[in-house]
Amino acid sequence: MGLMRYLKEAWKKPDKENLRKRMIKWRQGNSITRVEKPLRLDRARNLGYKAKKGIAVVRVKILRGGRKRMRPKKGRRSKRMGIRKVLKMNYKEVAEQRAVRKYNNMEVVGSYKIGKDGKYYFYEIILADRNSPELKNDKEIGRLIKSPKGKAFRGLTSFGKKARGLRNSPVKAPKVRPSLRANRRQGN
Question: Tens-digit pLDDT profile for the chain (188 aa)?
């Protein structure tokens, strides 16, 4: 077995105590933190990570427990006091969007969950610099960079497509193309 296979097996049953200590540190840190190397090297390499100039790994923490806004501390009229927020996105998509919003010259290559505790989900997002000449000549990542900007916001990342149901066959799930909303407007 190669190294990646051993790493994959190790992450099936991670060391709980070690992970808990890490999450305590992560919880105290910022919500978006750039890290030197990915924590799950096997998963990152699978998604397209390479130790090249122009590729960055970012750890994002997201509040768990529904999509509620923080309650306003000062007075508002009752209409503006609301804390309910309905989103048709999952936590991973939200994490990808927040990372791209902070590093706006970069594009999402992939992302994966690295843990959760009682309050937060933690994700690692792999980002590629759009202006890096090393990456423009790369066969796998070059096509991602040359495509139009803002894939995370349009649901065109790998997980965005999955969440929208676009991994299903057009025969088995015909109403998800081009989108549920567009299909409903066509009267189908």
Answer: 688 888 889 888 888 899 999 999 999 999 999 999 999 999 999 999 999 999 999 999 999 887 777 888 888 888 888 787 777 788 999 999 999 999 999 999 999 999 999 999 999 999 999 999 989 888 888 888 888 888 999 888 888 888 888 888 889 888 888 888 888 888 76
| Number of independent structural domains in the chain | 1
Q: What distance in Å separates the CA atoms of residue 39 and residue 151, rounded to the nearest whole number?
A: 24
- Give 84's contacts (C-beta < 8 A, 6+ positions apart): 68, 69
> d(Cα 81, Cα 79) in Å, to the nearest integer?
6
- Which among 15, 112, 182 has a CA at the least distance from the CA of 23? 15
Q: Has residue 82 been placed in a domain?
A: yes
Q: Report the C-alpha gap between 58 and 49 in whole angstroms.
A: 12
| pTM of the shown model | 0.86
Print the domain residue range for 100: 3-156
Q: Is residue 96 part of a domain?
A: yes
CB atoms within 10 A of CB 160: 21
Nearest-angstrom CA–CA distance, 188 and 180: 10
- Strand-pairing partners, residue 115, are 122
Q: What does the alpha-carbon distance between residue 91 and residue 66 come to, in Å, rounded to a whole number?
A: 10
For residues 11 and 43, the answer to whether their CB atoms sit within 8 Å is yes
